[in-house]
């Protein structure tokens, strides 16, 4: 793949479809933490939520369209190639084997971080990677309980820690608030509304061309 000494960001998701909330978050975190790249990794089969509406191949194709002109972001197809339920721990071992001695940072919104203690082998995962939590509007971190304990034990403030350790740190980073959700975009498309400016034009073009989210026959058909 490529060699780097700088940390690599990992943004996993269903990306059903990828939208400007995901992309802006990835780019802002890339710049704030001086990362080598951010890998956007669409899952094959999510283990914590209902199955996506678009196929794995369509979701990967949309991620590829979205990052085509942005060298900071990389469409990583490893979970889709693996074709097994998408456990992040497996993905991480796979990445480590390919890019050794490089710190990795999982990027997630607060909503995703609140569910982190239910992830498969999450304690082990946190020893192996850093976590960067991106602040989004309307989500708050609890001040007691397991999430608060995790923050007390692992919160770091220095970017240097991220590059000098392979994992173990949790970072909090405010990002531009773009309250966009893939669920809402799918609904808008299904109702024949125009989702433009919520997602890249290239992704919307793909959706129109492939009839993803039942757009065939709607007023957006070209
Ligand atoms: P859905 O509406 O289908 O649940 P989603 O838009 O939340 O999808 P996911 O693919 O589930 O997108 O999210 C992947 C990651 O992106 C998660 O860490 C989530 O917290 C984050 N994320 C989702 N939407 C935004 C947004 N608008 N701004 C910043 N981060 C986001």
What would your notes on this structure say?
With 222 residues, the protein is of the alpha/beta class. It has a single domain (8-179), classed as 3-Layer(aba) Sandwich (Rossmann fold). It contains ten helices and six strands. It has helices at residues 20-32, 56-67, 78-82, 88-98, 110-114, 122-128, 146-154, 159-164, 182-190, 201-210, and strands spanning 8-13, 38-42, 73-75, 104-109, 130-135, 170-174. The chain has a six-stranded parallel sheet, sandwiched between helices. The longest helix has 13 residues, at 20-32. The radius of gyration is 17 Å and the shape is globular. The model is unreliable at 216-222 (pLDDT under 50). It binds adenosine-5'-triphosphate. The site of adenosine-5'-triphosphate has 19 residues, from helix 1, strand 4, helix 5 and helix 9.
Which terms would index this structure?
alpha/beta; Rossmann fold; 10 helices; binds adenosine-5'-triphosphate
Q: How are the elements arranged and paired?
A:
Elements: E1 8-13, H1 20-32, E2 38-42, H2 56-67, E3 73-75, H3 78-82, H4 88-98, E4 104-109, H5 110-114, H6 122-128, E5 130-135, H7 146-154, H8 159-164, E6 170-174, H9 182-190, H10 201-210
Parallel strand pairs: 1-2, 1-4, 2-3, 4-5, 5-6
Helix pairs in contact: 2-10
The structure holds adenosine-5'-triphosphate.
- Fill in the CATH topology: Rossmann fold
Rg: 17 Å
DSSP summary: helix tally: 10
* Major sheet characteristics: 6 strands, parallel
Coarse morphology: globular
Q: CATH architecture, please?
A: 3-Layer(aba) Sandwich
Bin the helical content.
Answer: 25-40%
Give the SSE string.
Answer: EHEHEHHEHHEHHEHH
What are the segments in which pLDDT stays under 50 over at least 5 consecutive residues? Answer: 216-222
Q: Which molecules other than protein and nucleic acid are bound?
A: adenosine-5'-triphosphate
